Amino acid sequence: MTRVLRCSVCLVLLVSVPTMARAQAASFKVGYAKRDITPTKPMPMWGYGDRHNLLSKGVMDPLYAKAVVIDTGSEKLAIVGMDLGRAPRADMIERIRAAVKSTSGVGLMMISGSHTHHGPVIELRDKPGEGKGVFDDAVAYVAELERKLIDVIDEAAGKTRDARIGWGSAMVEMNRNRHSKIEPKPTDPELSVLRFDDAEGKPVALVVNFAAHPTMLSGADLRFSAEYPGQMMNEVESVLGTNCVFMQGAAGDLSCRTTPQTKGIESFGKALAQKVLEINRGIRTSVPEKPSLQGMDEDFTFETRVDFRNPILVQLFKLAFFSELATAYVNNDIADNTIRPHLTTVLVNGELALVGTSGEFFSDHSNRLKARSRAKKTLFFGYCNDHHMYFPTIEGAAEGGYGADPTVSWVALGAGELMMNKALVNLYTMMGKYKFKMPAL
User: Fold this and answer.
1) Which of 189, 190, 192, 391 is nearest to 302 (CA)?
2) Strand, coil or helix: what is 249?
3) What is the pTM for the complete model shown?
4) Is 437 among the domain residues?
């Protein structure tokens, strides 16, 4: 049953660092670190429901968490890309945020999963019926992952050095709309690259932003893999001798567009890497004139489109996935028939906008955000700081189909548009676009 949109917004954190004099002088520094997060024991795999509770069988290629920390003297931002299907759960994000704020002074963070469907399930919890006693290795992995994410952010924050920043992008025909039947089908073909260099101009790290489902491997393959993003990062790092981080975009309705030459994760990943390298050759980095970080973290509350208090529906959910996973999700992520997605809005140096959302947003959400933003550059990070399934556009939901129907899109209609509007309000506020004058008496 479709329900009326009802939304409440909770402001969790507002960090604003303008160019006024502060206790610490403004500077621009960047650090990088990575951790191997490949599970060492068999556990349920994320992404394909028809696997149910089948356990993994080995490793095709390792999974990593890679962190870039930006330090402007008075505030720090962590950008973390993981070779996992989703971002950490809300409770994990809360603990990670508190820990790195205390240990490293990192007040803003954007942790995204690449959305590989060959990573481990991380929804299971140390509670009876939600994983404990049945999938103890998976529960233990979640606790280990949380510690590693804290460690990798702390390490990157401890390695910051004077840096330069630059970016570039190109429109590439390497993704396709897998959902819509209406022409022209929306896509977001923009491949964006942020590059951070040290003071001498040597690259510290590249952050690559692109939108396409990493679902090229068969669901029958039960080996862990970073999929095409991992292959792309390996190639970029090999050619440039530096570090590469992947941040997935609004890939809810987008898959990889392949040719006979780019079928398979290695071929596609290397072809995408060549596009990244072409963009990189045109990037010129510089020291920001006015280093600053401004950011907002917000939780929204929406009613679900379906009634998860219905025991028949919950049973169907358990059959579609597996009992412990479904129970953990129903008890924690959609309790009381509400979904609580997260929005992170960051403005770097007054000109680079980063918007992260905790779900699989359709590509036109990203397209419209970029078209309406007045920042010099705007990037959209999906699967960021939690995960709440599909967010179709209003038009996409009206068309129906996988990703748009309430079977996998549980959030109220129009939720994505509301969150994108709020992101724009946030950005314009940070850029000082809204003026208010007291009326004369």
Assistant:
1) 391
2) coil
3) 0.94
4) no
3-class state of residue 433 by DSSP: coil
Number of Cβ within 10 Å of residue 25's Cβ equals 10
Q: Is 321 within 8 Å of 314 (Cβ atoms)?
A: no
Asked if the structure places residue 171 within a domain, the reply is yes
Do the domain assignments include residue 401? yes
Domain limits for position 186: 7-430
pLDDT digits (tens, 9 = 90+) for 225-263: 999 999 999 999 999 999 999 999 999 999 999 999 999
Q: Which helix (H) or strand (E) holds 177?
A: strand 175-177
3-state secondary structure of 203: strand
Domain membership flag for residue 438: no
Bridge partner residues of 68 (DSSP): 32, 79
CA pair distance 348, 67, nearest whole angstrom? 17
Backbone angles phi, psi at 338, to 5 degrees: -130, 150
Number of domains within the chain: 1
Looking at every residue in the chain, the average pLDDT score rounds to 94
Contact criterion met (CB below 8 Å) for 153 and 96: yes
Determine the angle formed by the axes of helices 227-240 and 265-281, rounding to 10 degrees.
40
Q: What is the pLDDT of residues 194-223, one digit of tens each?
A: 999 999 999 999 999 999 999 999 999 999
Q: Is the peptide bond before 184 cis (omega within 30 degrees of 0)?
A: yes
Alpha carbon 441 to its chain's center: 49
Whether 3 has a pLDDT exceeding 80, the answer reads no
